Structures are given as C-alpha cells and as structure tokens.
Amino acid sequence: MTATQAAEAPPAPSSPPPGERQPASRKRLVPYWLLLPGIVWLLVFFVAPMVYQASTSVQTGSLETGYQVTWHFATYWDALTEYYPQFLKSVLYSGTATLLCLLVGYPLAYTIAFRAGRWRNLVLIMVIAPFFTSFLIRTLAWKTILADGGPVVGALNTLHILDVTSWLGVTDGHRVLATPLAVICGLTYNFLPFMILPLYTSLERIDGRLHEAAGDLYARPFTALRKVTLPLSMPGVVAGTLLTFIPATGDYINAELLGSTDEKMVGNVIQSQFLRVLDYPTAAALSFILMAAILAMVTVYIRKSGTEDLV
User: pTM (2 decimals)?
Assistant: First the structure.
C-alpha cells in the first residue's frame, strides 16, 4: 500500500468504551422486563393451577383417607361416559346462543359503524351498559321477564308461538322458565356484547369508499354486503364467535337459575362435583375434558374459516 492510499483509507472504527455499551444492552432488556409481570401472573394464576388440577385428576382416595396421585387415568373415561349428555347440551346451548348473538349483533354492529352518526358513542354505551350490572343480577332479571304470568309469556301464548316451541321441544307447554329456551335466552343476552364489540371494531375499520366502489360497479346493497363487507369483517366474526362460544360453553349460572335439572350443562356438573359431591378427581377430569374439547373445536373452526393467523 502506497502512502497516498494509506492517507485516503478511512480510519478503522474504534470500539466504544465499556461504559457506552451498557445502555444499549439495557435497552434490549426493556421488553423482557415489561413482559415479566405478565409472565409471573400467568405462571401463578394459570400454569400452577393447571398443574395442580392435572395432578388432582389422576388421584384416588377420599376426604377421610386423603387423595394420592396414583395415575388413575380411567377417571377421564368414567367422567366422559357418565356425563356426556351434559357435554352435548353445553355445546348445543352455547352454539345456538352464539348463532343468535351473531344474527342479532351483526346488524347492530353494522348500524353503529356506518349509520349511527353522532349517536354512535351513545349506542356503544348502551351496548356495554349491562357490564355495569352483576352477571348474577342480570340472569335473575330474566326469571322475572320469563315468569309464567308475565307479559312476555302472555304475548307468546296469544301468538301461539309457545305451541310451536313446545312441539320443537325447547319449551314445556305454555311456560318458558325451566326449559332449554330460557337457558338459551339467558346465554344470548349475557354474552351479546362479546359479539357486538369485536364486530363493530372490525366493521369500523372498513373504508367506506369500498362500498361506493361496489355501488359504482352496479352491485346491489345485499351483494356489496356479501362480497365486500362480510369478507372484510371476518376477523371480527371469528373473534366474536370465539369470545361468545367459549365462555358460554363453560357457563353454569344460566342453566342453574333459568333451567331445570334436565337442562344442566357441564359447568353445573363441575361445580357440583367440586362444591357438593366433593369428588375432586372427577371434577378436575371434567374440566380438562371440557378444555380439550373447546380447544379442538376452536382450532377446527379457525382453520375452516380461513383465519389461521388467529391461532
């Protein structure tokens, strides 16, 4: 290398002193420090209870002699064969309530997103207003609404609607309480906001010019809804159905207060096994079976709906 090339060569970068490298490493650790409270929360209140319940589900014994881990996996099969009707009812009731929430919530969310105008915030407040009241009180209110001598049942009897629902097997004669219809109504009402809010969030993000473009291409309003709005709002549909179906499947308050002994869901069985029968292994096994069933159904649903990125 000549003297001229040596003079023109850029100086070699000098390594920063140790004191200047520490702030950069600290910055890289900031996200992990921010995640630490959430990780600790999940470990204490999710992972640890799950591990404890998993060990409980394979125990044998009694309250008098004590429970011991004997890896008795037959408890799962015994619980499933004995209480499978309650599992089927839970899926049927929660699935029906989810479908009703979607049929009611989608038009309402569409109206809030595109037609409410200056009333949008007021309507949203009305949607979330039930959350300011206890879940138990809201369910008890439905006992008054669906009372045998109430105006709702009287109107249904006058219109002979209860004759049809009784023929379908969802009501009992001319009464609604203590029937599957009462449980489904309670589930639909209590979980309707969980459907509306994700739908509204998804619909509100859609550019209104897309509707104008669909109209310019001579698409009818229903065609624009089916070809433009519905596909773009599918993330909200998927999120809303999951937020409604999952908690509704494990709910037991509505079946306890609005149904009879024949309308018990699997949540009622788990609650009874834990607090009344005191059969902790069976209750824990039922809990894990319910969780595994919901996880399998949700995974299949997400993949069939074409939103695998939500998994």
Answer: 0.84
